[in-house]
Design a protein that fits this description.
Layout: E1 4-8, H1 14-28, E2 38-39, E3 44-48, H2 51-60, E4 66-74, H3 79-91, E5 103-109, H4 118-135, E6 141-142, E7 149-156, E8 159-165, H5 187-196, E9 205-208, H6 215-225, H7 245-248, E10 263-267, H8 272-283, E11 289-293, H9 301-310, E12 318-322, H10 335-346, E13 353-358, H11 363-367, E14 373-376, E15 385-390
Parallel strand pairs: 5-6, 5-7, 9-10, 9-12, 10-11, 12-13
Antiparallel strand pairs: 1-3, 1-4, 2-3, 4-8, 7-8, 13-15, 14-15
Helix pairs in contact: 1-2, 3-4, 5-6, 6-8
Length: 391
C-alpha cells in the first residue's frame, strides 16, 4: 500500500512538471513546503500524498497528462501474487474513497513488459478490488461505460502501481478547443513549451507567428494568469473523491490574477482565424491575446516591438515560441527554405529569445544559428526536439 500524489507527463518533462507544481504551491499555500519528488522514469513524479496539493494539481497543473492518487504498489511478477497482494491491501483499506456501490473502471498503461497480457493484468486488478472490498463488507461494481472512479494501472520499473485518476480523463482535454487544425499540438505539450522557454509573463511579450488554432497562445496566457485547467462545465472526478473533494471545490479563480500578459498570435490560414478566436474566448483569455492574420514574414519586428512598448512591456526582450509546420503540415522539399526564412525573420529581434518544437531533421541547419538548448521532446509518435535560441 502506498499514499502518493503522482504526476504523469510527456517523457523528458519531470523537471518541468516539478517546477510548475512548485510555482503553483508557493502562490496557493504559504504554509506548505513542497517536498522533493521521487522520479519514476522520464515522465512520472511521486510526492507524499497531501489532499491540498492533490486538489491544486488537478485544478491547475497544466504540464501533466494525469494527476493520480497512488494507492497500491506490487512487485509481483505473476498474476496470482499480484491479485493476492492487491486484494489483501484493499481488505484493510481505511481511506474514504472505498464506498458501497461505487462504480469503477480500470485503464492500463505501459503493461507490455509484464509476463501476462494487459487484459489479464487488468482482470487480476479488477477481481482484487472487488474481492478485497467484499472482505471489508463493501460492494464495488465494475462499470467501464459510466464509472464514478477511474483507476490507472501502469508499470513503473519492476512494480505495478494502481492509482485513482483524480481528473477522470487526460488533462489535455481542457474543454476550450471547439476545433483544431491539421496535426494539433496537445494542450499539455504546449504548456511544457511555455515552461521550457521560461516565459516571464510580467515583463515579456510572447509571440507565436504560426499559431494554428491558438493552443500555444492560450496556454501561455492561462499559465501567466494561473487559470484553472478545466473550462466549465467540465469538472475533475476528484470533486467526488474524499478527502480531495473539499479542496477541488474551493474557489477556482486565477492564482496569478495580478499578472496581465500580452500574447501575440499570428496565423496564415484564414480558415483557422475564427477557430483560434473561438478557442481563446472559450478559454477566457481573449483579452490577453492579440490575433493577426497573414504570413509571419510580413510581421515587421519594429511594429511588434512598438506594440510591446505601448502595452508597457520591454520591447528589447521578448519570446518567440512556436510549433512550426513539419511532416504532413509542410510539403516535402519546402522545409529548408521555410526554416531558412524563419531563421532570418527571427534575426530581426535582437535581445529576444526564440523557441520551437520541431520534428524535422532539416530544421537546425536551415535555421542558421546554434541553439542554446536542444532537448529531445516528442510530439505524440513523432520524434522531435525543443530548440531555444538567444537572438
Amino acid at each position: 500500500m502506498i499514499d502518493q500524489l503522482r504526476l504523469i507527463g510527456v517523457p523528458g518533462t519531470n523537471k518541468v512538471m516539478a517546477g510548475e507544481l512548485s510555482r503553483l504551491s508557493q502562490r496557493a499555500f504559504a504554509d506548505l513546503r513542497l517536498p522533493e519528488p521521487k522520479k519514476e522514469g522520464l515522465g512520472a513524479l511521486a510526492y507524499p500524498f497531501d489532499p491540498r496539493l492533490a486538489g491544486l494539481a488537478v485544478r491547475y497543473h497544466r504540464t501533466s497528462t494525469r494527476v493520480l492518487w497512488g494507492l497500491y504498489r506490487s512487485a509481483a511478477q505473476r498474476l496470482e501474487p499480484l491479485y493476492q497482494e492487491l486484494a489483501d491491501a484493499v481488505a484493510v483499506e481505511q481511506r474514504p474513497w472505498l464506498q458501497e456501490g461505487t462504480r469503477f473502471s480500470i485503464a492500463p498503461f505501459n503493461l507490455e513488459p509484464f509476463a501476462a497480457g494487459a487484459r489479464q493484468v487488468v482482470g487480476a486488478a479488477k477481481n482484487a478490488l472487488i474481492e478485497g472490498a467484499a472482505r471489508r463488507g463493501v460492494g464495488l461494481v465494475l462499470d467501464p461505460d459510466d464509472p464514478q472512479l477511474r483507476f490507472d494501472l501502469r508499470l513503473h520499473g519492476d512494480a505495478v502501481v494502481l492509482s485513482l485518476d483524480l481528473a477522470g480523463r487526460p488533462l489535455n482535454q481542457r474543454g476550450y478547443r471547439s476545433e483544431t487544425g491539421v496535426a494539433p499540438l496537445r494542450e499539455n505539450l504546449a504548456a511544457v513549451l511555455v515552461m521550457l522557454a521560461r516565459h516571464d509573463a510580467r515583463r515579456q511579450v510572447l509571440l507565436d507567428p504560426m499559431a494554428g488554432s491558438g493552443t500555444i497562445a492560450i496556454e501561455a496566457a492561462c499559465m501567466a494568469r494561473g487559470r484553472p485547467v478545466w473550462v466549465e462545465p467540465r469538472r475533475p472526478a476528484a470533486e467526488e473523491i474524499e478527502p480531495v473533494a473539499g479542496y477541488c471545490q474551493q474557489p477556482t479563480g486565477a492564482l496569478f490574477a495580478d499578472t496581465r500578459p500580452l500574447v501575440l498570435a499570428n496565423e496564415l490560414d484564414p480558415q483557422l482565424g475564427p477557430v483560434a478566436r473561438r478557442n481563446m474566448a472559450n478559454a477566457g483569455v481573449e483579452r490577453y491575446i492579440r490575433f493577426s492574420q497573414g504570413d509571419f514574414r510580413a510581421l515587421v519586428p519594429d511594429r511588434v516591438r512598438a506594440i510591446a512598448a505601448e502595452a508597457g512591456f520591454d520591447p528589447g526582450q521578448g519570446l518567440i515560441l512556436s510549433n512550426p509546420p513539419y511532416g504532413e503540415r509542410l510539403s516535402p522539399g519546402l522545409s529548408v527554405g521555410f526554416y531558412r526564412d524563419l531563421g532570418a525573420w527571427c534575426a530581426g529581434f535582437p535581445g529576444w529569445r526564440a523557441a520551437f518544437l520541431v520534428a524535422n531533421p532539416e530544421f537546425e541547419a536551415a535555421f542558421g544559428s546554434r541553439p542554446r538548448i536542444k532537448k529531445p521532446l516528442n510530439n505524440g509518435p513523432l520524434r522531435g526536439y525543443f530548440y531555444l535560441y538567444d537572438l
